[in-house]
Amino acid sequence: MSRFRGLLQASINATKRALSGTWEDLMPPSEKYVFNFNSKDEIKRWHLYSDSEYGGLSSASLEITDGDAKIEAPVTGVFSGNLSFDMDENSTWKIRRSGFCGMRSKKFDGFIDLDSYDTIAMRLKGDGRCYISTIYTENWVNTPGQQEDNSWQAFIYVPSNKWHTTKIPLDSYLPTWRGNVINAKLEMNPSRIVGMAVSVNAEGGVPGAKTGPGEFRLEIDWIKALRAS
């Protein structure tokens, strides 16, 4: 189905819903789970990447904790590993910077429509490092011949060793291409989200955050979309 036909069909479906129900029926819930890291099946929806694909020596894993009902500890996901600036001497790749790892969701079956929401919320327990939240949308910004999804990124500072709910307004996400901010006024289309990612770099981030090579650990309970306003 072409993009125009898809938009037309979505408009027709919305009109049908408006004519057949009350306003309350049309309003979506105030929050929506996007990911809930409470089972091993949830882990299968993600894949890992790092500079090791380009000759770097950083490494990462994504696992599910056992949880503990006695102390009300939930089952959660743990994204952890080691950041390194070193390179494999035998690598044919010549990348400018190493020291990064990430976890990216596998592409959705179609897309997720978050047009009724204005905020992404994450319940996290970190290590004092700054992480990056990425939203991938259908390619509307890039040229037609470029097949990469549009990416939108925001920093997340996660305090050490305590649970923290981070809330990021969707309009705070900046358009990026291969990690660099696009210097143009662009607007995300939240109705055509095709994936998400969480990543970490050894360098950069917000002032006061832990930086440099070494171990990292981020525990993730859930990722939600909220209607905060």
Summary?
The protein is mainly β. It has helices spanning 3-20, 23-26, 40-43, and strands spanning 31-36, 46-50, 59-64, 77-83, 100-105, 119-125, 130-137, 150-157, 163-169, 174-177, 180-181, 193-201, 214-226. Helix content is 11%, strand content 38%.
Question: What do these coordinates show?
Answer:
The protein is mainly beta and 229 residues long. It has three helices and 13 strands, in the order H-H-E-H-E-E-E-E-E-E-E-E-E-E-E-E. The protein has helices at residues 3-20, 23-26, 40-43, and strands at 31-36, 46-50, 59-64, 77-83, 100-105, 119-125, 130-137, 150-157, 163-169, 174-177, 180-181, 193-201, 214-226. It has a seven-stranded antiparallel sheet, with no helix packed on it. Strand 10 and strand 11 form a beta hairpin.
List the helices and strands and how they pair.
Elements: H1 3-20, H2 23-26, E1 31-36, H3 40-43, E2 46-50, E3 59-64, E4 77-83, E5 100-105, E6 119-125, E7 130-137, E8 150-157, E9 163-169, E10 174-177, E11 180-181, E12 193-201, E13 214-226
Antiparallel strand pairs: 1-13, 2-5, 3-4, 4-13, 5-12, 6-9, 6-13, 7-8, 7-12, 8-10, 10-11
Taking Cα atoms only, what radius of gyration do you get, to the nearest Å? 19 Å
Helix/strand order: HHEHEEEEEEEEEEEE
Distance between the termini: 34 Å
Number of strands: 13
How much helix is in the residues?
A: 10-25%
Total helices: the number is 3
Coarse structural class:
mainly beta
Shape: globular
Strand order of the largest sheet: 2-5-12-7-8-10-11
Strand content: 35-45%
